[in-house]
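Bug #77: duplicate submission created two jobs. Keeping one. Sequence:
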Amino acid sequence: MGSKPLPPQVPGYKQPTVLESKAREEGIAVKPDGGAAVEFHVLPYGHRWTLSRDGQRMGIFDTKQQTIEEACQRARAEELSSIVVHDSQGHVQHKDDTGCTDTLRDFPRQ
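Kept job's structure:
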């Protein structure tokens, strides 16, 4: 069939890259500069908890709540971030796309 119409030429308009378009199609948050949003993961680590970003461990903590607090501090420093909290089995228990909320700070300690 026919191709999609081009967007109107608007001053300052930037054609999205293939990566940006793919990320938006898959529901992945994208920063205004085109970079992907940062995800911090609170994960079980034996009898302790770990905080990771982009698959890299950032620290090990005694409690889940300590790990969440550290994730909140780091998320506030990012332009666009989310915190993913896993349960003790490693399953996603909660996702906070705003980086840190009161609900997350008061999250149950299980």
